[in-house]
Structure formats: C-alpha cells, structure tokens
Design a protein that fits this description.
This protein is mainly α and 473 residues long. It has three domains: 27-114, Fumarase C, Chain B, domain 1 (Orthogonal Bundle); 137-223 and 230-371, Fumarase C, Chain A, domain 2 (Up-down Bundle); 380-460, Fumarase/aspartase (C-terminal domain) (Ribonucleotide Reductase Protein R1, domain 1). 63% of the residues lie in helices and 4% in strands. The protein contains 21 helices and four strands. The longest helix has 37 residues, at 122-158. The N and C termini lie far apart (65 Å). The structure holds arginine.
C-alpha cells in the first residue's frame, strides 16, 4: 500500500511553486522536515505589507499593469482579512508563509498573482519580513520596558527616605537609600531601551531587491519601496543582504541583556522575600503555595523569570552557532533563525509584563530594612573619609579605622557605642562632629557626589527619571 502510493507520487508532477524542474512530488517526510509555516506564519502581516509595497513598485516601473497591481492589492487584503478571521488554511506542503500567501493569491486572482514574485526571491523576502516584524516588536518592547521603569520609579517615590544596607560580595557594605537601589534598575532598563534603538537603526534598511543574492536585471526601484515601508534606506550589497542575520543576532543579544536584568532583580526578590531577609512582601495574588507544606508562600514568578534566562541565552547561542561558518550567501540553515528569535522575544515580553505587575504588588518592610543597617560596621568608610577630611592620608585612615573595628568586634559593640574619648585614642584628629558621620542617615546623606546615594542626589535622579517617562508617554 505504502509502496503503491510512493510509486504513484513518483510519476506525478510536483505542484510546488518551484516545481517546474521536478518530475516527482516531494516525500511527505521531507515536507514535514523542511516546513516552517508552523512558526513563520506569525510573519503574515509583515509579509503582506512587504508584498503590497513591492507590487506598487512593480506597477510604477511598468513591470505589471495598474489593473494587475490593484488585483494583487485587493487579493492580499482579502487574504489578510481571512488570516485575521482565522479562516485561512495554512498548509505545510507550501513550506512557508511566503508561498502559502502567494499560492492563495494566485488561486484567487489568477495570473496577476503569479506576477507578484517578479524581481524578488524568498531570500530577500524573508529578510524583509523579519526586519519589519522585529522593528514593530522593538516598539512594543520599548513600551514594556517603560512600564517596568514606571514601576521602579513609583516604588522609588513611595519609599523615598528609607535606608537599607547596600551590599558588595553579598556582605553589608554601606548604607544606601532603598530608592537608590530601585533606581539602579531604572538605569539598566534605560540602557536596554537605548540599545534597542541602536539595533533598530542598523536593522532599518530594506534588503528587498537583493533578490536571490546577485540583484536583478529587471528595472526595479528599491529606494521607493524602502521609503514606502519607512526604512531609512536600502542595504548596500546584495550578497551580504541575502545571507545576513546580524540584525536578528543583535536583537536577540538585546533581549538577553533585558532578561539578565530581569533575572538579577528576580534573584533579589527571591532573597528579599525569604524569612532571613524579610525585606519585601510579594502580594498573595503573585505567589503560589506548596502542595505539601501548608505554611509556604513561594516566589515562583521571580524564580521562573530567573529560570527562563536559560532559554533566552540558549536562543542567542543557537543563532550564533547557526550562522557560524555559513558560506555566503543564503543557505537553508538560515530558516533556523526564527524559532530562537520568536521564543526569546515571547519570553522576554512575558517577563517584562509580569515584572511590572509584580512590582506594583510588592511592599517593602521599611523597619526591617532600617534594622538591617545596624551592625556590620557599615559606617566604617565614613569614619575613614572623616579622617581624610582632617588631612590624614587615606591609607593611614583606612588602617586606623581597621583598628577601631577590630576593637569593637572584640568587645561586641558597634561604632556608635564608642564615646569621644575612646575614639580619640585611635586618632586625636577625631572631634565631637564625628557623631554626625557615624549615624546611618549621616552616612547616606554625606554621599552627595553625582550619582551617589544622598537623598538630594536620589531626589534629583528620581525627578529626571519621572520627567523622562513623562516625555516618553
Ligand atoms: N522559509 C525560508 C526561510 O525562512 C524562506 C527562504 C527560503 N528560500 C529558499 N530559497 N529556500 O529562510
């Protein structure tokens, strides 16, 4: 039975759009192995957008008639409507989104449809589609990044003035304002936004007209298509255009940095919501329980964000490896670009969305944060800086304060427990005003250098962030 079917397939002529030179139909196993329609169908809107611009250009260049152009435009609009209504049937035998749409067009409007692919190849078409798609997704990502930034800024405003320990090596280092810590994330996401913009700037060139890889002898006008599709220009070298996926790689790299930032925050939220820290409380609606331990309230959302970082990084590595060693120009390997790009994009978008929500549903335990600044000699650097202001060389001051800390540790007391006489035994330069410096608030508010944690600097940073977000909205 299987054999009979096989021999039947062998004598039947291929019905593919590219089937002219084939005397046998494609094996079913090959069709399922090579198809990309199961995932590249999400490019349909951009594929149609590109085809419409291409058709208009073909008419301007007298490569098709105005009637043919109009039939193509109408046909493509009808297909778009059917896809959006969910009534369009995508078929794997037609491989990819380009051929599914082109075949449907030709079935509907006849010969005019068969002219759409004039002076075009799927090689420049897929590069065009992906650029158009990622450009739109970059705008969406920017909106989501803004949403996350807004959540940080709102928290920084709410908790302005609250102190907490700042850490290095996960050891208490120096007291800081909670708002300063929160605004550090605002900065990370600002850089992500600017990186995204840079990436779009390089991506925003039209590859259409590179055709398969050598360009075309037909009298096309690449520039006018680029303009219609709001590109900043056209790519310079047809061979480069055909095989280039730098833009996709850069995009996935930007996604990776966003995910990394989300993951660092996630780690802090997991730590901070533990009993050991008790710095934050994540709202019940944003936590889950344990099926065995009735007392548990688990921070699954940040854990999953942290965990999903693996697949986003995997997408980058996968794409890098796909392109490594590929000879010029287009190779079918490049079809493997889409799944990692889409998966990384979906993952990061979901992560940004839920993070913003999570932050709006997180409360900080300000008392706990304040208490955690006690102990650990976090104002030791302030004492050293105080001595520097009294003209003692920093290295010497460092050593004097080291002696003070050792003394306190032996006696099990804090720097603030020492009186003036005891302090002066370590350095006669110490005077009554030392007590302004040794308090946590004094320490925080002394750090007035640009970008420092003093309240006056943090307020400034907060205002700048608020103004920026206001402008962006
Ligand atoms: N589905 C293909 C891809 O994603 C489109 C380009 C195919 N070109 C070709 N000559 N087979 O890369």
């Amino acid at each position: 039975m299987g054999q009979a079917q096989d021999s039947g397939a062998k004598t039947k002529k291929s019905a593919k759009l590219w089937g002219g030179r084939f005397s046998e139909t494609t094996a079913a196993s090959v069709e399922s192995f090579t198809e990309s329609i199961s995932y590249d169908r999400r490019l349909y809107r951009h594929d149609i957008m590109g085809s419409k611009a291409h058709a208009r250009m073909l008419a301007r260049q007298n490569l098709i008639t105005d009637q043919e152009r109009d039939a193509i435009l109408q046909g493509l609009d009808d297909i778009l409507a059917d896809i959006e209504a969910g009534t369009f049937v995508f078929s794997p035998e037609l491989e990819d989104v380009h051929m599914n749409i082109e075949k449907a067009l030709t079935d509907r409007i006849g010969d005019a449809g068969a002219k759409l692919h004039t002076a075009r190849s799927r090689n420049d078409q897929i590069s065009l589609d992906l650029r158009l798609y990622l450009r739109d997704e970059a705008a969406e990502l920017d909106r989501l990044l803004q949403g996350t930034q807004r959540a940080f800024v709102a928290l920084a405003r709410t908790y302005l003035g609250v102190v907490m320990p700042g850490y290095t090596h996960m050891q208490r280092a120096q007291p800081v304002l909670l708002s300063h810590h929160l605004l550090a994330y605002y900065e990370m996401f600002s850089r992500d936004r600017s990186r995204l913009k840079d990436c779009v700037r390089r991506m925003n060139l039209s590859p259409l007209g590179a055709a398969a890889m050598a360009g075309t002898g037909l009298p096309i006008d690449r520039e006018s298509v680029a303009e219609e599709l709001h590109f900043d220009g056209v790519t310079a070298n047809s061979m480069d255009s055909s095989g280039d996926r730098d833009f996709a790689l850069e995009f996935v790299f930007v996604l990776n940095l966003i995910q990394l930032h989300l993951s660092r925050l996630a780690e802090e939220l997991v730590l901070w919501s533990s009993k050991e820290f008790s710095f934050v409380d994540i709202g019940d609606r944003y936590c889950t329980g344990s099926s065995i331990m009735p007392q548990k309230k688990n921070p699954d959302i940040p854990e999953l964000i942290r965990g999903k970082t693996g697949r986003v990084t995997g997408a980058l590595v996968s794409l890098l490896m796909t392109i490594k060693g590929l000879p010029l120009t287009y190779n079918r390997d490049l079809q493997e670009d889409k799944e990692p790009v889409f998966d990384a994009l979906d993952t990061v978008k979901a992560g940004l969305t839920i993070t913003a929500e999570l932050l709006h549903n997180t409360t900080f335990h300000t008392k706990k944060l304040q208490q955690a600044t006690r102990g650990g000699f976090m104002t030791a650097t302030d004492l050293a800086d105080y001595l520097v202001r009294k003209n003692i060389p920093f290295r010497k001051a460092h050593s004097i304060v080291g002696g003070v800390v050792a003394h306190c540790q032996q006696r099990g007391i804090e720097l603030t427990d020492l009186d003036l006489d005891e302090l002066r035994k370590f350095s006669p330069a110490i005077e009554q005003d030392i007590f302004n410096v040794l308090s946590v608030e004094g320490s925080v508010n002394s750090r007035i250098s640009t970008g420092g944690t003093a309240q006056i600097q943090v307020e400034r940073a907060l205002e700048i962030a608020e103004q920026q977000l206001e402008k962006d909205s």
